[in-house]
Specification:
The protein is of the alpha/beta class. The protein has helices at residues 93-99, 120-123, 138-149, 173-179, 185-204, 222-226, 230-233, 241-253, 256-266, 277-286, 288-295, 320-323, 351-365; strands spanning 12-15, 50-55, 107-110, 165-170, 209-213, 271-275, 330-331, 336-337. The protein has a six-stranded mixed β-sheet with strand order 1-6-5-4-2-3, with helices on both faces. A two-stranded antiparallel sheet has the order 7-8.
């Protein structure tokens, strides 16, 4: 039976089928599949040294996996990382997982691309991603991973182990934006069929440890609360949109437990975590006290603006100190610094929220409930 696990930060569903039958240890392998094993390959966050990441704007770091671009290395764990490549005007949760909350050296290969969907075909919609080089949906991103970092590659760019690699995916916001107005359950079904297909493709390529993030409460995004940036994003907002988007998110998130349960039942050597971003964002936007009980754990200043965004912050700032979170950009017209806002713009959150997100993920991956992680090495 699967349990819904909630810590003092009630953010993660951990769905795992644990097989405790005795079996001799099997060696790690490089670049590709091996015979299924009777127990999970998960050895804990402390043993992870590679992240392979798939997603959209919440997840992207501007990484280009194609040669001759620099690959992740001990001295450059994010590879050809673009500082303006995140949607948070600062380090997103992937950057924090790699460089702040890592228990050992982690090298991160990030295929995420702004605007990407799980399946552009399933929604019958041209994604927002332009000139994406095939990265505009999960299928393209997974294929890019397979062609570059598995045994199918003519010259694989890196070696990796199933036991020490974690495959992260965060999709769905753009699928919902493209399809929610139709309120068609068959569209959601097709999307999750594609999600399962992609998980199977990763499994056949050797992946065994997975982290899936569910969808945040999009009805709380300024775009749907007040129409913020609706014209700029070319998304018409009318009466009833907030209800439709809330229902679409609920239907979408309701599919994740079944997706994972079926996938794990088919593969007893798999470990899958579903991180409950929806619960996190609800908790943080409920009140200043609930938000700041979380931000204070990570040395962040209090959040003061939880429901709105400021038009003068929507495009962020290119100042390096701002990006690294070492300085907080202030526009007096906004009534507070950028780092005091939960929402950066109509759809995206600021870098402090991403730090809380990363910290919550690792708390659960490490089995820590309700205690802040040590970021002294930050």
């Amino acid at each position: 039976m699967h349990k819904l696990i909630r810590s003092a930060i009630p953010l993660l569903i951990s769905l795992s089928t644990l097989h405790l039958s005795a079996a001799a240890p099997t060696p790690d392998w490089q670049y590709g599949p091996q015979s299924p094993q009777p127990k999970t390959q998960w050895q804990g966050w402390d043993h992870i040294d590679k992240l392979f990441v798939f997603g959209a704007s919440y997840t992207g770091t501007g990484f280009n996996w194609l040669p001759p671009n620099p690959q992740p290395s001990p001295s450059n764990p994010l590879g050809n990382f673009v500082r303006s490549g995140t949607s948070s005007n600062g380090p997103n949760f992937i950057v924090h997982l790699t460089t702040v909350f890592n228990a050992s050296l982690i090298e991160t290969y990030n295929f995420a691309f702004a605007g990407a969907q799980i399946s552009a075909t399933a929604t019958s919609n041209t994604p927002y991603a332009k000139d994406s080089g095939g990265q505009n949906d999960m299928v393209g991103q997974v294929n890019s991973f397979i062609s570059s970092y598995t045994s199918t590659a003519q010259a694989p760019s890196t070696s990796w182990s199933a036991r020490s690699s974690l495959f992260i995916s965060f999709f769905g916001i753009n699928d919902i934006l493209a399809s929610y107005a139709r309120a068609d359950p068959s569209t959601t079904s097709r999307i999750f069929q594609s999600y399962r297909h992609n998980l199977e493709s990763l499994y056949l390529s050797g992946a065994r440890n997975f982290l899936i993030l569910n969808i945040p409460p999009m009805d709380l995004m300024p775009l749907f609360v007040s129409g913020f940036q609706a014209a700029e994003l070319h998304i018409p907002i009318t009466a009833g949109n907030s209800t439709l988007i809330r229902q679409a998110v609920e239907a979408f998130n309701g599919q994740f437990p079944t997706l994972v349960s079926n996938f794990e039942s088919s593969h007893p050597d798999v470990k899958v975590f579903i991180y409950d971003v929806h619960a996190l964002f609800h908790t943080m936007t409920a009140s200043s006290s609930s938000a700041n009980a979380l931000t204070s754990q990570y040395g962040l200043q209090p959040l003061q603006n939880l429901q709105t965004a400021c038009q003068y912050y929507t495009n962020g700032t290119t100042h390096p100190a701002d990006y690294l979170g070492q300085d907080d950009y202030v526009d007096e017209r906004c009534g507070g610094s950028m780092g005091t806002y939960f929402w950066l713009n109509g759809l995206h959150v600021t870098w402090p929220v991403h730090k809380v997100l990363a910290g919550g993920i690792v708390q659960q991956l490490k089995g820590i409930q309700g205690a802040a992680l040590d970021t002294a090495s930050e």
